[in-house]
Queue: 3 jobs
Job 1
Amino acid sequence: MRGRLAFSYTGLHSTVERFLDARRGEIDERTKLGVARSFQKAAVGQLEDKLVLGMRECAQKGISVRHLVVSGGVASNSFLRERLRACLDAESPDERVELVFPPPHLCTDNAAMIAWAAMDRFLTGDTDEYSIESRPKWSLEELEGQGELRQGRLGLEMTGVANRDMLEYATLRVGIKPTSYNHAKLRLRDGFWLLIQLQQLKCT
């Protein structure tokens, strides 16, 4: 996906998989380290390319980028941190962009956060029907091209789910059932609950 603000690691994953399959998984420690190093370099290189594209697109639109926030499990990777810093300095030498990372113990895997939220919903008896379409590839650009009606319906559905979840979480965590979405936000101190969850999921 060169030249586009889109990501795909399928090819990289397949290349490594074929390499390992050809050797039936029997590789020495030095080769393992080499494969891991090459994979990391290629994966981070793609992030660098997309960052440059994003920076240049912002510049064309007159948007001044002053901060870049990187989060999630990968944000604790020191090589990624170094490469993004070098990339920003090279792309914006006259105006230093501040690169912001959470403390490593808050750089948890997104999957863990999603699973935690799902378990909270499950324990309160809040479940969904199996009506949501599951697709391995679903770009934002594709969603934009499906018409205003579909966009509007999707937006309302997602907003409804978010509002309902916020009410459930507030009830579970605070012990007082909120009367509205705004009340729930107030009870949760505008996201403080999430920070608590991240701290409880910190890496050891």
Job 2
Amino acid sequence: MRGSNSRLERNRRMEKLDDTFQALTRHQTGTPHNLEWGQVVVEVNIMTNAGSVATAVALTNVFYRVIRTPRARALLRKEPDAALEPDKVIALDDKAKHPPYLRACLHECPRLFPPTTHGLPRKTSPDGLNVIRPRKQDSP
């Protein structure tokens, strides 16, 4: 809260900072929005927490899928070992920084199982899917 109060004081002194707080308190033209301080705090809390929930759900889905898939689990266990040199305890090269299979899991799982309440798995049949159905020509 101390940081928020400090930021509010900077805003009252008309200090221009291009950040989310600025957008909540003033229009781009500099005109104040005249929101009560409590409203601003609530908006900041909602924005801060909204992203963390989706991230937590996405990571939970990744962990769940990896735990339930023995092949994925085995590949993920091998990846750090492959990046580690026999006489080293810590891997410092690009293989350790950007493990391809782990990155694939982290990108693919949220695509297949988005962290939303109504998201359906994003899969298509081997034949594909027609999203736009061609309209029949109107007969004269």
Job 3
Amino acid sequence: PTGLAIDAETPLKQLSLTLAEDLQRLAPFGNGNPTPRFLSRNLVVAEDRRIGREGTHRRLTVQSADGAKVPVIWFNGGDVEIPTGPIDLVYTMGINEYRGERTLQLQFVALRAAEEMSKAPLPGDAPCWGVEDLRSQPSPSAALPTSDRAFWYVEGTVLADGIAYTPRMNAASVAKGQPLVLWTAPPSAELLQWLVDTTAPSAIYLCGQATTDDTLPGLLRNVAGMCKYALQRNGLLQINRMAARLGTTEAVIRHSLLWLESRGQIRLEEWDPDGTPVDTVRITPGNGQPASDDGRPTTDDSMILQAEMDEQLAEVRAYRRFFLRAKVRELGL
């Protein structure tokens, strides 16, 4: 996708288990950057297999012109159409541990039909706005514009008295040019940039209050509670609203739902039902038993998904720490 951040372009033959192990030693990426993303060009899909319940996930084997082959796990990609011909693939590197054997495994981020390299346009003039850095203040409310004169970004389940929940989606409906108050530390650099681009603020107030529970037990408890609430009504869940309520990324929410399904707690019945907003899923009650496509109990899917969630939450926590201590220019503001 346009604007997708790539850390390095790498030929497939240069990837190795040793490189993946070296990257894991850097986790949880304390400089605040997410897991490094790599790009490999002009690959062919040598194998394409559906995995998981009802084939909702995908396991690809991609191959480069020099014969190098690597497996790729693509969660929730079972129904996505892959372009014919060579592809450019963006991925993160991971390690698959199965029955005592460790092998290199890529995690899908994005793909497109292979394209020729193009030069990026020169950047335009940098935007101009004032930044008020209040991150070191435990209670900065008195120094902030009121919510009727600014857009406050406030998410999570740990909100102080007098601080109103104001999710990311609301930024799209406010008038541009108002001050932007970042009361909650965003879960990712991408969301921070989206908030700034969407609101085009006249000033930015950095607060970075701790308003979220970024632990795996806390996340799963909250998501399970949302599922229980939805099942008592129409069974519909909106991914972006769930992410905003918990102050996390949409990827974390999708993985948590897939994990709950893999454990038999819910069933992801239909994505984007007719008449619903984009990225809505209809759920039904699970049978309480983890099951593979042939109905036999398995824990492979849930183990993979849990490892992915651990990694994603580590990235979220690392970025919030980075947001709190980085210099303003390091935040891209």
